[in-house]
Design goal:
Low-confidence stretches of chain B: none
Mean pLDDT of chain B: 91
Order of helices and strands of chain A: HEHHHHHHHHHE
Radius of gyration of chain A: 20 Å
Strand content of chain B: 5-15%
Strand content of chain A: under 5%
Number of strands of chain A: 2
Strand order of the largest sheet of chain B: 4-3-5-7-6
Structural class of chain A: mainly alpha
Order of helices and strands of chain B: HHEEHHHHHHHHHHHHHHHHEHEEEE
Structural class of chain B: alpha/beta
Largest interface: A-B, 29 and 30 residues
Largest sheet of chain A: 2 strands, antiparallel
Largest sheet of chain B: 5 strands, mixed
Strand order of the largest sheet of chain A: 1-2
Distance between the termini of chain B: 84 Å
Number of helices of chain B: 19
Oligomer: heterodimer
Chain lengths: 182, 515
């Protein structure tokens, strides 16, 4: 239910915020700033350190890593979803489930590249659904495995997390706006 | 064979020590550029302690130093007094304790890991042979640790004391000698007197240690009482102070309970845990660790996170390997510290916070080491190639970091490190004899403190816009120090620029005012 509510919220957005997309303008500004600040530094050193490859790689990675910001994950998955997400990562270590979870982890790592690199080529809805499906799949799988053999204590713990999730949505609704354009 | 490995490790440790020393001491007075206000306050109080035996307010040898509406813990200031006695009253003396103890921390992580490995009975496992030396190297080159070792930051000294305390606890467990338990207690108490965060982190650590050690019968009740008695006696003054209104001043300013005003008990019961959870998990956020840190210019460089990106795959794999391994003391210690470090920092805002969360740099260095060793020894040639490739990327990234640190950072972040207050004071000292009085605009908030530190002979009058010239100054010419860009009646005699600004940014102006 919380996952569906979160998806509904994100569907009312028009776009992800620019911080989740690679920007050619920002790249140019960064490169110019670095070169400008390199007065009295040897030209060779400036060219080795501040060039299109290094600045592009740095900007691209920085943008990609924002998908693993705690505010984004809590806004996208809610608390119970993040718990499931972490469980999904944990269950990679269990040999039995290894291939399934490994596949989901690879998906989670690869899909954000689409938003970072191809935001102008694909509609928002498709990009949103790709990210939502990959992240939620890992979260759901983790939660399902956790709850399959759940005793009374685990169920109580899960209920508390769900309660916190609903509270989170109410209290920190503004945090979603950091990543979403309405 | 064993002797050869030990000799090799000692040799490598010596090299790492030299590297750590160079990275922390090279150009210490000039980079970061200038002293920020807390460093000035520390330096000034250290100077008055050294010369007169009192703090800036005249209190003799206090256990808490009053500064800017709250209180500083005493250890760093007394260390700086000692440093000023040796090196004189200058930037190097203020930063020396942090740089020195930061270098010692690199050695301590090595010795702590050696003890933990021995405690876990893993010393014969070749996997752990080089873990201490690799972890020490990672800490030596860690931007997070370097940043706080090169400024007058009490948290860095407290971290070293914390490591020493943990080392002595492990030594006690390995050698069963009471002297190590005593030393551990002393160093734990020193953390209380060094930085506020440890008033939460250290008691938590001690509690967890006691529970575990009593459970596995490694700590007798007699030794436990002895340990707690030492801690209790030595820390009593600071704990009494902590719960006073002065002691709570800093917590009141930065408490997470200020963020949302919860009125009813019900609101407090569900709002505060939520805010705390959000703060806690924010310290594990990848953008915080690898992209931008907490955003404060003094805590990391604008273009880098506290950690370098090449470490990320190793940290993730290190966590994976450690959790997958058989339960042992090393696993418990590293993962425990990794999860414990943000607990204290999460009570305050803003969160995440690179300074308050500094203890996390230790488990992250160890996890990086575990990741490197595991991947390299995995048996797959491709992974070995991956490790070697990441090594070269890491060398390049670290080189880039050093370039930014020494070349860009002083030019761009001068305002975070005191702006040009020093230059203002120096110019004022040259001009002072020509004028009846020296006035300082209150908008230059910290000018008076900088003036006290750099030239005690100056007696500035802090003025606001509504200030009225007193009768004894009527008709006399005064020197008026104002922020740059604000016009004043009188003649502008000097513009002070930020020392290394590439854009020639003006910081303050000196005006000659007659009326």
């Amino acid at each position: 239910m919380t996952a569906i509510y979160q998806l509904w919220f994100w569907l009312t957005c028009k776009q992800f915020q620019g911080i989740l997309q690679y920007s050619q303008n920002a790249f140019t500004l960064h490169l110019e700033e670095y070169i400008h600040n390199d007065k009295e530094v040897s030209l060779l050193l400036t060219r080795i350190i501040h060039n299109k490859i290094t600045v592009f790689t740095s900007d691209f990675l920085n943008t990609y890593l924002r998908f693993f910001d705690s505010n984004f994950l809590f806004s996208f998955l809610t608390i119970v979803g993040v718990f499931g997400f972490l469980l999904g990562l944990w269950y990679v270590k269990e040999k039995r489930k290894n291939k399934i979870y490994l596949g989901l982890v690879v998906l989670v790592m690869v899909i954000p590249f689409i938003e970072v690199a191809f935001s102008s080529f694909l509609p928002y809805l498709i990009r949103l659904l790709l990210i939502w499906i990959s992240f939620q799949s890992l979260a759901f799988s983790g939660l399902t495995t956790f709850l399959i053999k759940a005793g009374k204590n685990k169920l109580i713990f899960f209920s508390i997390l769900l309660a916190f999730s609903f509270s989170w949505i109410v209290v920190f609704a503004d945090k979603m706006m950091l990543f979403c354009i309405k | 064979m064993k002797t050869a490995i030990i000799s090799k490790n000692v040799f490598l440790l010596a090299i790492i020590f030299v590297v750590a020393l160079m990275l922390r001491f090279y150009n210490l007075s000039s980079v970061p550029p200038g002293l920020y206000i807390d460093e000035i306050s520390i330096g000034y109080n250290a100077h008055t302690i050294l010369t007169k035996g009192v703090d800036e307010y005249g209190t003799p040898y206090p256990l808490a130093f009053k500064t800017f509406g709250d209180y500083k813990m005493p250890v760093y200031i007394y260390l700086t007094a000692l440093s000023e006695a040796i090196f004189g009253k200058n930037e190097f003396a203020i930063r020396f304790p942090s740089a020195f103890f930061g270098t010692v921390a690199v050695l301590m992580i090595y010795f702590l890991l050696k003890e933990l490995i021995q405690l876990a009975k893993l010393q014969k496992d070749s996997f752990y042979t080089y873990l201490p030396v690799i972890s020490a190297f990672i800490l030596a080159i860690s931007p997070w640790h370097i940043q706080f070792s090169r400024g007058g930051f009490e948290v860095n000294v407290a971290l070293t004391f914390y490591l020493v305390a943990l080392y002595f606890i492990c030594r006690y467990l390995n050698k069963n000698s009471l002297i190590f338990l005593l030393l551990s207690a002393v160093f734990f108490v020193l953390t209380f007197y060094t930085y506020f965060v440890y008033r939460i982190l250290t008691p938590l650590t001690i509690l967890i240690l006691i529970i575990c050690l009593v459970k596995i019968k490694k700590l007798t009740w007699k030794n436990l009482l002895f340990f707690l008695l030492i801690i209790g006696m030595l820390s009593l003054p600071t704990f009494l102070f902590s719960f006073s209104s002065e002691g709570m001043a800093r917590f009141s300013q930065t408490s997470l309970f200020n963020e949302i005003q919860a009125k009813t008990l019900w609101e407090k019961l569900y709002l505060y845990p939520l805010i705390y959870l959000r703060n806690y998990f924010s310290h594990f956020s990848l953008p915080f660790l690898f992209v931008a840190g907490d955003g404060f210019g003094r805590h990391q460089m604008p273009w880098f996170g506290p950690l370098l990106k090449w470490q990320l795959p190793f940290i993730l794999y290190g966590i994976f390997i450690l959790l997958r391994s058989k339960k042992n003391v090393l696993q418990f210690g590293v993962i425990g510290l990794f999860l414990l470090s943000p607990i204290a920092a999460s009570f305050a805002i803003p969160s995440p916070h690179t300074l308050r969360d500094l203890p996390m740099v230790i488990p992250l260095a160890v996890l990086t080491g575990i990741g490197i060793i595991s991947l390299y020894r995995s048996g797959y040639r491709l992974l070995k190639v991956f490790v070697v490739a990441l090594f070269f990327i890491g060398v390049f990234e670290f080189g880039t970091y050093l370039h930014f640190y020494y070349s860009h950072y002083p030019k761009v972040n001068g305002l975070d490190w005191g702006g040009a207050y020093k230059e203002v004071v120096q110019e004022t000292s040259i001009q002072k004899d020509k004028y009846a009085a020296i006035l300082v605009d209150s908008k230059l908030s910290f000018a008076k403190t900088y003036i006290h530190y750099y030239d005690e002979s100056l007696s500035p009058i802090v003025v606001t816009d509504s200030w009225v010239k007193p009768k004894d100054l009527e008709g006399k010419t005064v020197l008026f120090i104002r922020p740059a860009g604000i016009n004043s009646a009188g003649k502008r005699i000097k513009t002070i620029y930020l020392p290394e600004s590439v854009n020639n940014d003006a910081f303050a102006e000196l005006w000659e005012v007659k009326e």
